[in-house]
Every structure is written in structure tokens, then in C-alpha cells.
Amino acid sequence: MFTGEFQHSLDAKGRVIMPARLREGLGERFIVTRGLDQCLFAYPLEEWTRLEQKMKQLPFTKGDYRAFARLFFSGAMEVEADKQGRILIPQNLRDHAGIEKEVMIIGVSDRVEVWSEQAWKEYFNNMNSNFEQLAEKLVDIDF
Fold it and tell me: Domain holding 134: CATH number?
């Protein structure tokens, strides 16, 4: 399970440090792809395989599925952290997430998300004010 929020900076070559705690769960090699809400999703290879199998069950005859699958899978890149724990984020993925320099990396249960710091702050501020309402609508768990 991935949790936590980490701030890092992109270097001149487009690399960012993946926090050690998150790298442990992601493994030596993992997948980074276009995510929703203007961020990137990172998955351990095992989770990526499960997700891919679920997606294969959806009807390719549906145009919405084909469009989503094309965008989601075409952006997927297998990455590997170097000795300093940095991963290279390809330019097309940086463009998708609006990442220029400051990066937020967050753990979200089964995946890691990579955001531009500005986009994360805006998203967090907008959603945080609705936290209780979201819980009432979606969560049926006693805390």
C-alpha cells in the first residue's frame, strides 16, 4: 500500500527522485503512464499486469473504451530508478501532467501519483474543502 506526500524537483534532464519508501513498493522497474486529473500514475509491474488483464475484459467495440485504452497504454513507459533513486519522466508525460520543475509525489493505495506541485496544490485545496461530503457520499466504513 502506498501512502504519503513528497515534494521534489525535476532536474535538467527530466529526472526526479522517487522516495525510497515508495520505490520499495514499486520495485526495481515499474510503469509510469498518463493518469487522470492531470497527473501521472505509477504502478508496480504486478499491479500493472492485473490492471491490463481487467482492461482486456472490457468491450473493444465501445468507442470510449478504445479511446481510453489508446491514451492510457500509449503513454505507458517502463522506468527504472538509478543509484540515486531518480527516474526519468519522458517529455510527453511531463507535458500531460504540466510538470516543469517542482513535483509532488503521492501514495494512493495501489498506485503512486506524480503531479506538478502547482496542480496538486490546486486539486488538494479544491477537494479538501469537500472532504467530509465526499466521505458521506462514498465511504461506508467506520473510522
Answer: 3.40.1550.20
Specify the residue for cell string 522516495: 19
Q: How many domains does the chain have?
A: 1
Residues of the domain holding 53: 5-138
Judge whether 47 lies within some domain.
Answer: yes
Please name the residues in contact with 131: beta carbons below 8 A apart, sequence gap of 6 or more. Answer: none
The answer as to whether 24 is a domain residue is yes
Distance CA 89, CA 92 (A): 8
Q: Has this prediction a pTM greater than 0.85?
A: yes
- Render pLDDT for 73-114 as a digit per residue (tens, 0 to 9): 999 999 999 999 999 999 999 999 999 999 999 999 999 999
111 burial (CB, 10 Å; 0-12 / 13-18 / 19+) is buried
